[in-house]
Amino acid sequence: MTAQFDLAVIGGGSGGYAAARTAAAAGLRTAVVDGARELGGLCILRGCMPTKALLSAAEVLHRATHPQAWGIRSAHVGFDFAAVMERKDALIREFAEYRQEQLAKGSFTLVRAQARFVSPHEIALSNGGSLTADHFIISTGSTITHPPLPGLAATGCLTSDDALSLSSLPASLIILGGGAIAMEFAQFFARFGVAVTVIQRGQHVLRDFDPDAAAVVEEVLRREGVTIHTGTELREVSGGSGNKSVRFLQAGQEVTVSAAEILLAQGREPNTAGLELGAAGVAAENGRIITNEEMRTSAPHIFAAGDCTGKHEIVHIAIQQGEIAAHNVAQPTRTRRMDYRLLTSVVFTEPQIGVVGLTENQAQAAGIPYLAAAYPFADHGKSMIMEARDGFVKLLADPHSGEILGGACVGPQGGELIHEIIAGMSKRMTVQELAVLPHYHPTLAEIWTYPAEELTAKIPATSP
User: CATH 3.65.10.10: does it fit domain 2-144+269-338?
Assistant: First the structure.
C-alpha cells in the first residue's frame, strides 16, 4: 500500500522527533519513518546520556578515592561495575521509554521500517510498502567510522557502542583517537582502574579546540595515569583475544604498544548509505547531505537535519535544525535560517571544556580582529575551596565595541558555566556590561568578571 503525506520525516531521533512535532503542530499530515531496532536515537541510546551517566559514576569514585586535600581519610573504597552499568541502563530505559511514548502517541503517524528513495517524492519501505510525500526531512543520524587500518578488522576492537555495554572491565585499553569521545572514555576507564593508552594522529588532543584548552585536559589525564601519544601515524593492528598491539610511527621512530583491548574512538560518519539519495536528487559529499542555512538540500522539497548533515554532531543543534526545517516546510513564505553564531561545544571530562562562539584559532583563520583575556581557576576563591584548580576562563571581544565574540571555560562545571556567555552573546552583550553584572560571592560564575574587567580596560570608552 502507498500512503500520502504532506511531510515524511526519515529518522526518529532528536532531530527527527523535533521536526515531526513542529510539523504536526503546524497542521501538516506528517509521518515519521524509523526502522531502528530500538527507538530513541543516538543521544539517548548510545551517546550523550549513557556516557554522561558513566562519567558521573567515575567522578564519584575519583572523589571518594582522593579526599586527602580536604583533610578527610577514607577506608578502602571499592565499586561494583555491574551495578554501575545497571544504573546507566536503568536511566537509559527511562529516557528511551519516554521518547518511544512521544513517538507512538504523537500527532503524526509512526512507521516502523527502513526507507530508501525510489523517486523524488516516494520512498520504499523495508516492510514491503511505500510512502509518498510532498516534502521530506532526512534525519538519519550517524554511524561509527571504521578506518582502513591494516589488521584492525581481523584483530577486532571495541566501538563506543560496545564500550557502553561491557559486562567487565579490560585490564588495559588502547584508545584510537583524540577527540571528545576518546578523552571522555579515557578518563572513565582510567578512573575505574584500567591502564589506558591514547594514540592520537594530531599534535594535540581535542584538535577542534584552542591548544590552551586542550592542553589542560591532556595534562590532567596524564596526571591521572593515562599514557597519551600524539603526532602519530598508525601502521598496523595485530594480535588476538586479550593481547592486542598497535604499531605506529612517532617522531620518525616505530613504536608498538599492547593492551588487552582496543577501543576505536575516531568519530562518526553520516548514516546515509542506504537512502539512495541520488534517486531523490539529493546531493551529498562523502555521505554528508549538503544543506543551506534553511536546512534545504539540492532537491527543493527535501530538507535534512542533525548528524546526517555532518557539520555539527551536537544534539541541541540537531533539534534546532529539525525545527527550522519543519517550519520552512510549513511556512514557505516565512522561512527561517540557522544561525551558528552561538555554536556551543562541551567536553565532559573533568575538568570540563565549554566553548561558545569564536575560538582564537577560528578568529585568526578568518582574519577577525579580537582581544582576548583569560583568568585561571587556580587563583579563584570558590574553585580553590573546591580543590578544582585546573583550567581557566577566556573571553574574546570586539576591540572597538567590546561585544563578546566567544568564550571558553576549562574547569569545574565548564559545561554549565559557559551558558552565562551563551546568554550574554544571544543579547549581544559587551564585556563592559558583563564586568558590572552583579555576581554572588563566592561562586564559580563570578570568575567571568575578571577577564571582562581586563578587556574593558583595554577598550576605549565610547560617549553615551
Answer: no
Does domain 351-458 bear CATH number 3.30.390.30?
yes
Our measurement of the distance from residue 423's CA atom to the centroid of its chain's CA atoms, rounded to an integer in Å, reads 20
Tell me how far apart the alpha carbons of residues 392 and 215 are, in angstroms, rounded to a whole number: 11
Query: What's residue 464's pLDDT?
Result: 47
Q: Which residues are catalytic?
A: 441
CB 246 within 8 A of CB 257: yes
Q: What is the pTM of this model?
A: 0.94
Decide if 208 contacts 229 (C-beta within 8 A): no
Confidence of residue 2 (pLDDT cuts 50, 70, 90): low
Phi/psi of residue 300, nearest 5 degrees: -55, -25
The length of the chain is 464
Share of the chain above pLDDT 90, in %: 88
Task: Tell me which fold the domain 152-266 belongs to.
Answer: FAD/NAD(P)-binding domain (3.50.50)
pLDDT (0 to 100) of residue 46: 85
Condensed to tens digits (0 to 9), the pLDDT of residues 375-415 reads 999 999 999 999 999 999 999 999 999 999 999 999 999 99
Instruction: Tell me what pLDDT residue 41 has.
Output: 82
**Residues 161, 145: Cα–Cα separation, whole Å:** 12
Grid look-up 548514516 returns: 271
**Helix 48-65 vs helix 81-105: crossing angle, to nearest 10:** 150
Residue 182, C-beta contacts closer than 8 angstroms, at least 6 positions apart: 175, 176, 198, 200, 205, 263, 265, 266
Quick one: pLDDT at residue 167?
A: 95
Query: How many other CB atoms are there within 10 angstroms of residue 292's CB atom?
Result: 11
Tell me the angle at which helices 211-223 and 180-191 cross, rounded to the nearest 10 degrees.
20
What average pLDDT does this structure show over 162-167? 95
Closest CA to 362 of 217, 208, 215, 216: 208
Cell of 288: 554528508
